[in-house]
Amino acid sequence: NFCSLPSSLGHLSKLLFLGLQECRNLQSIPELPANLRSLYADDCTSLEKLPNLSNFKRVPTLFLTDCNKLAEIQGLENLHSIDVFHMERCSNLANTIKDSFFKGQSEEYESNIYFPSKEIPDWFSHQGMGSSISFDMPLHVENKLLGMTLWVVYAAKEDTAERIFPPQALFSNITNGDEWIHMPNSHRIPVTREEHSWVSHMPKSYFLYPMKGGERIEVSIKMQPPLKVKKCGIHLVYKPNIAEEDQGQSSCVNADDGDELMDDMHFKRGHDVETSCDLSNEEKFGKRQRIEPDRTKNLDMELDQLKK
């Protein structure tokens, strides 16, 4: 039933994980320790203020789902190395986030952000309706490619209390047959009929295979029902001075309810599943590989430990 936390919290240098889930009378959080790795504050429905986070070199993983009174995070525009940021059903906060926040994410680190939004910004040069999009890698600029940002808009037909595995992205090089899967380091996401966005930045160092100029790349998004992809987009991140007309052409593929483009990726439900995608059959997937290990379970285990 407490409304605030002691200001001395910021001096707890060995504090790594702070769990405040469902503290519905909590109105503010003081300065956080510089070594904090994760802040769990889902369902803090009275929370209005967070401390300035711009002093963090590596921003803690932030879980702020259903903090619907939270309208601003000081220093957010200066944060360029966010790992995971959940702010589902936080419309007041989402409305304050500017494009510069997404454009400014570090070229060295992966980031995954979930928030209410139904539109993909115009500066995403490759975008369209449906769960799949393809584009041509520009010629003569692959050495200047720093990474890419993926933007996915999704929603369900109705709200439920269920939380499901986050979406995944299958990258297919149509030109040479290489394939790999991007499995985000994220917590499970709520099922909501309000349109939300998943924005994931992937540095070039995370690509399992190099993508060369002139190659055709297809990106297919898989979401666990009842959530469904509405639209998706890709923004290629380059070193400065790459003209927009040099960034390639794209086309959209509209995958229907069956998600035929990815129907051999099987999801499992339940808390005992280590990954949200079964990749154990090597013959079935051929050259498909993960871009990175799935750490969803690790975040779930952290949360379970905090609840205990």
TrEMBL record:
Residues 278-308 are annotated as: Disordered. Its EC number is 3.6.5.-. It holds the Pfam family C-JID. One of its GO terms (molecular function) is hydrolase activity. It is an enzyme of class 3 (hydrolase). Residues 115-240 form the C-JID domain. InterPro entries: C-JID, LRR_dom_sf. Coiled coil: none annotated. Residues 281-308 have a biased composition (Basic and acidic residues). Keywords: Hydrolase, Leucine-rich repeat, Repeat. PANTHER family: LEUCINE-RICH REPEAT-CONTAINING PROTEIN 57 (PTHR47186), OS09G0267800 PROTEIN (PTHR47186:SF3). This is Putative TMV resistance protein N-like isoform X1. It comes from Davidia involucrata (Dove tree). The lineage of its organism: Eukaryota, Viridiplantae, Streptophyta, Embryophyta, Tracheophyta.
